[in-house]
Structures are given as C-alpha cells and as structure tokens.
Amino acid sequence: SGCDTTLALGPPPSPSGHKMIASAAFAFSGGDRPWMSTADTPAQRAATLVQHMTLAEKIQLTHGSCGGYVGNVCGIGRLGVPAIKMNDGPQGFRDNAHPGSSTAWPCSLAIGATFDRSAAEAWGAAMGDEFFRKGANVQLGPGVCLARVPRNGRNFEYISGEDPHLGYEMVQPAVRGIQGAGVVANAKHWANNNQETDRTSVDEEVDERTQFELYYPPFEGAIAAGVGSAMCSYNKIRTRWSCENPETLQRDLKERLGFRGWVMSDWGATHSMSLAQGLDQEMPGADFMNAAAIEAALDSGEVDASRIDDAALRILTPLFGVGAFDINNTNTQRNNVSTPAHTALARSLAARSVVLLKNNGVLPLDRTAPLRVALFGKSARAPVVGGGGSGAVVPAFVPSPYDAIRARLGLSAGTGDCGLLDASEAGGPCVAQSDGDDTVAAYELARRARLNEIAGDCRRLQ
C-alpha cells in the first residue's frame, strides 16, 4: 500500500549524486553495527537500531536539543545516529544569515497552479538538492493545507489551493522530489491551519466527514508518496490543541490514514507531554517532552515503553530511507547552493504557473515595433516576490517587470521613458509607469492608453 512505502523507500541515494560535497560512507562495520547493513529495508534497520538504544537515547529523539538550523536534534555518536537538521521552508531554504545563497523558488500555491505533476517533482527535487547542499536532512515543507480563508497569511505556502484533489495529486511528486535528493519532507500543518489570525488560540470546529472529504486528502497524498514527517499546527481542533489531539493525531493520521512517519510540533505548539496522544517530537526544545516528564509518565503508566520505541522507529525509519545514515553530509549553511540552472528552472516554473486569459496580439512584445507600454502599480518597479515568515527566502536578485520589459524592448539606461505616453513622442518603443500615488497622473495615463491617444500605429499593454 502507499503508506508502506515510507518504510521501504529503496536504497539510499548514491554519494555520487551530490558531487559538490566531500562525502564518504561512515566507517561502520555490519558486525558491530548491524543496522548499517544496506541489505535491509529502512524499517528493518530502524528496528535493529532501536533494540540497541538506551531509554535516554530514545528520549533524546523526542525533542529539539542542539543549535544550528531552524531545528536540530543532537546526533548520537555512540550509535552513529546523525543530527536531525531541520530548516524552513516550503519554497526554499530560508537562510537570513546568508541572504541570497539559496534559490527563492516559486511559492507552493504557484506550483499548484501549474496543474503539472512534472513541475512539482522538478521543484521538489531542486529544493531538496539545495537543502542537502546546505547540510540539512529535513525540509519543513511542503505545505498542503486548503485555501479556505482568502486572507489567510499562509495561503502562499500551500500547494493545494482550494481543491483537496489538486493537493492530493500535486503533493506526491513534490514529496518524491524532495526525498529523492536525500532530505526528509514534512507535510504541514496538520490540521485545519487555515488562518493566521488568532492561530495560537482559535478552535476549529470541523466535523468528521468534512475532515476526510476536504482537509485530509492533501495529507493522504503525502502519505501515499511516503512522506517521512508531518507537523501539527498551533490551533485547537474541537477544543483540543492540534498537537495533543488523540482523535486527529493518533486515530485519524496514524491509524486511519496509515501515516508511518513521525509527527513533530510546530515551533512552540506543544502544550503537554503528548506522546500518548500521538505526538512524537516537540520542537524546537524540550519544555514538555523532556526526559524527566517522559520518565515520570513511564513510571505512572501514562505512557507505555512501547510508545517510546514507536516514536523512535517513526523518526529513524525515514532518516534511513533518505540515506542520512549512509552519506556523511559535511555541507554547511554557509554554502551558496543556488545555480544558474536552478534560477532558470525557477523562472520556468513561475511562467508555467501563470494563465494568460486574453491576448489581442500584444504578447510576446515585439522589440521591432514602436510600442508604447503602460505599467500601473508600485509592483512594476518593486515587485513582491514572496511572503514572510517561515516561507520567506531572500533572493539573490529581483528583476522588476519594468526593467524586464525595457530589456525585452532593447532599451538601454536613460532611454525609452515616455512619461505619460506623450502623443507628441515619436520614434522607437518606450515604457511608462505610474505607481498610483498621483491618482490624477495615473488616471491620465490610463485614459490615454484606453483611448489610444498616441500618435502613430502602436499597441499598448493595459
């Protein structure tokens, strides 16, 4: 079944697939560390490793501990367990310390708008490659929630748009692309995280049928693709915090949908020691899922020892599946991982997300014609290329529509500015732009464009 693929993701990626790093297999012998045998499936290797772990080592996996990256779980040197290095976000590696060193990819919503599975897979594979070359082994994405509230501040992060079936279809190639690059993908935010307003206190009242018909299908798609991790959200669901809700976490996600990976909390979304409710890992620290709390729960019988093993298995299996144990990834966040090929791919993906509804012969722009092009709005010169928060990636450069159109028309600096499309201007093409602050000037520019009050035979972009 689709969910079983999480436990048998196939052989780990070959180190030759990441030629830009100095990679070498860990020098572990199969006899001393039998979980290093690549002849076994990821699930078998994880089960063998858990048998050799102490309780303290298993508990260490259940919370953030080390520094660096957005989230980090310390490695276990005794057993060769790599550090779990997690980083934002759903449309590229967020690295504010090294701005411009990773590609600012088209947002998830734009990829959904392509309706193109191959585009989603290429997008995921390229992002996964950059995460790997930044030293991370978990990408905190893709985001898959539905766009149910038009003004939700995170709609741009979600690949599903308004259509649960679109989300189901498009998230699968994205997950395969990310995890094929040696990085665990993360489906978020489970569940009903459909508004940012009051997100840490809102109680989402959603009945069971609506959950399974609208809100769950995109996550089902991620599970079918073998996604290794999921992130529970800040909000409440039917009076219970999402990250400690046994109905949505344990029953629906793990038992009914068959999710075999691990559930981490959104950052600061843990409210209790919630292992028994289905949470596997608190991020970014250990306010609740710490050794003292977990050991007390074991002593009282609130949590069974088998649940600790289950959490460890869920965390370790996807890491084996993407090759994190077999490739010594020595990359660091300082690396500049964007490439000309990735920039070209980002441009191509963005273009494929746009639908041109009407074209009366204006496009493509003909640089040989005496075009007079009018642009309206501040974004013509200062475009907004991404949202904020965990989905933000600082681009290395931002070409504006104004500059791009001028370049298309072959205009050099200091030429081709036709102001308000002055009818007396003659000669070659020119570009006019109004940011809208001067409403009278903007109206006049629009009026002239609409009424074609420009001398000569020309076309205009309205």
Descriptive tags:
disordered N terminus; 31% helix; elongated; three-stranded parallel beta sheet; single chain; disordered C terminus; alpha/beta
Report on this model:
The protein is an alpha/beta fold and 462 residues long. 31% of the residues lie in helices and 8% in strands. It contains 13 helices and 11 strands. Strands 1-2-3 form a 3-stranded mixed β-sheet, with no helix packed on it. A hairpin with a 2-residue loop joins strand 7 and strand 8 (240-241). The longest helix is centred in the N-terminal third of the chain and has 17 residues, at 117-133. It starts with 41 loop residues before the first helix and ends in an 11-residue tail after the last helix. Mean pLDDT is 88; it is low at 1-29 and 451-462.
Assembly annotation: single chain
How much of the polypeptide forms β-strand, as a percent range?
Answer: 5-15%
State the strand order across the main sheet: 1-2-3
Order of helices and strands: HHEEHHEHEEHHEEEHEHHHEHEH
Distance between the termini: 52 Å
Total number of beta strands: 11
- Treating each run of at least 4 consecutive H or I residues as one helix, how many helices? 13
Structural class: alpha/beta
Helicity, in percent? 25-40%
Overall, the morphology is elongated
Biggest sheet record: 3 strands, mixed
Write the layout of secondary structure elements.
Elements (H helix, E strand, L loop, with lengths): L41 H10 L3 H6 L10 E3 L10 E4 L20 H7 L2 H17 L4 E2 L24 H17 L5 E5 L12 E2 L3 H8 L1 H8 L4 E4 L3 E2 L2 E2 L5 H10 L5 E4 L25 H10 L4 H17 L18 H13 L19 E5 L24 H8 L21 E5 L4 H13 L11
Parallel strand pairs: 2-3, 4-6, 5-7, 6-9, 10-11
Antiparallel strand pairs: 1-2, 7-8
Helix pairs in contact: 1-10, 4-5, 4-11, 5-7
